[in-house]
Amino acid sequence: MGKRILISLFGFSLLITGVSGFLVLNKLASQDGPFIIHFDSSGVVDIIAGANKVSSIFASAGFMILINSLLAYILYKKEFETLTYIFLGSSLFISILAFLASNLIISLN
After folding, report:
1. Which domain does 43 fall in, by range?
2. What is the pLDDT of residues 70-102, one digit of tens each?
3. Is the pTM of this model over 0.90?
4. Whose CA is closest to 104, among 41, 34, 23?
5. Do residues 12 and 88 make contact, with C-beta atoms less than 8 angstroms apart?
6. How many CB atoms lie within 10 A of CB 73?
7. Which of 17, 72, 80, 81 qualifies as a cystine partner to 87, CB 3.0-4.6 A?
8. For every residue of the chain, which 3-state class applies, written as one string?
9. What count of Cα atoms within 13 Å lies in the side-chain half-sphere of residue 32?
10. How far apart are CA 58 and CA 64, in angstroms?
11. Mean pLDDT over residues 14-34, rounded?
C-alpha cells in the first residue's frame, strides 16, 4: 500500500509540472518579446524575462523533483519510509508552486 502512495506522489508531481510547463510554453509561444514575471508593491513591472528564462523555471522544478525522487528512492531502500514521504511530498509541493507560477505568468501576459 505504501509503495502505491509513493509512486502516485511522484507521478502527480511530474504530471502537474509537465502540464504547467506545457501551458506556459503553449500560451507564450505565439507572443514575441519579453514577458512580465513580477510586479513590485507600487504596481510597476519589476522583473521582465525572455522565453528561455520562463522555461528555465519549469526545468528547475523538474530537476528538483528528480533529485527529490532519487533521494526518496535511496531512503526507501534503506527503510527510512518517513523521510521518503517527506521528500516526495515536497516534490508535490514544488510542482504545485510551478503550476501557480505558470498561471501567474499566463495571466500577466
Report:
1. 2-108
2. 988 898 888 888 888 888 889 889 889 888 888
3. no
4. 23
5. no
6. 15
7. 72
8. CHHHHHHHHHHHHHHHHHHHHHHHHHHHCCCCCCEEEEECCCCCEEEEECHHHHHHHHHHHHHHHHHHHHHHHHHHHCCCHHHHHHHHHHHHHHHHHHHHHHHHHHHHC
9. 0
10. 10
11. 81
Which residue's entry shows cell 504547467?
20
Residue 9: how many other CB atoms lie within 10 Å: 21
Give CA separation, 48 vs 32, 56, 68, 77, 89, in Å: 13, 14, 30, 44, 31
Cα–Cα distance, 15 to 106 (Å, whole number): 19
Residue 49's nearest CA partner among 67, 33, 66 is 33
106 pLDDT band, cuts 50/70/90, is confident
Cell of 60: 528547475
Domain count, the chain: 1
